[in-house]
Amino acid sequence: MTEQSPLPGNPGAGERKYWLDSPANVDKIYWAVVVVCGALFLADALYHKHPEFGIEGVFGFYGLYGFVACVGLVLAAKGIRRILMRKEDYYEDRPGDTGGDS
């Protein structure tokens, strides 16, 4: 008989199961991060700011600025990927290759 690999999220015999292997625990972390981010965004109203520029005094400016910057980085990375991406068979042997370092 052939040995089958266990399904994702279903450890086989002798495999150790970790806390983050359970999707329910991953969801807990996701929602905890959402709550913490929301609380920090709302906490922006609770302290006096000394802005260098007028726009920095806007409620939630730094949270919004960080979000827009992250979205911009993702979009820029997608654009760069189109430029730098190689074909799927880029590393496969080509006809005439000897495989050596000559």
List the helices and strands and how they pair.
Layout: H1 23-43, H2 61-84
User: What shape does the CA trace take?
Assistant: flat
Q: What is the percent of helical residues?
A: 40-55%
Subunit organisation of the chains:
single chain
Strand count, sense and barrel status of the largest sheet are: none
Distance between the amino and carboxyl termini: 45 Å
Radius of gyration: 25 Å
Give me the strand/helix succession. HH
Total number of strands? 0
pLDDT < 50 runs, ≥5 residues? none
Q: Per DSSP, what share of the residues sits in E-state strands of 2 or more residues?
A: under 5%
Overall residue-averaged pLDDT value: 85
* Annotation field: number of helices: 2
Specify the structural class: mainly alpha
Report on the structure:
By secondary structure, this protein is an all-alpha fold. Among the domains are: 17-47; 57-88. Helix content is 44%, strand content 0%. It has 2 helices and no strands. It has helices at residues 23-43, 61-84. It is flat. The mean pLDDT is 85.
Which labels suit this protein?
2 helices, mainly alpha
Quick structural summary:
By secondary structure, the protein is mainly α. The protein has helices at residues 23-43, 61-84. It has 2 helices and no strands.
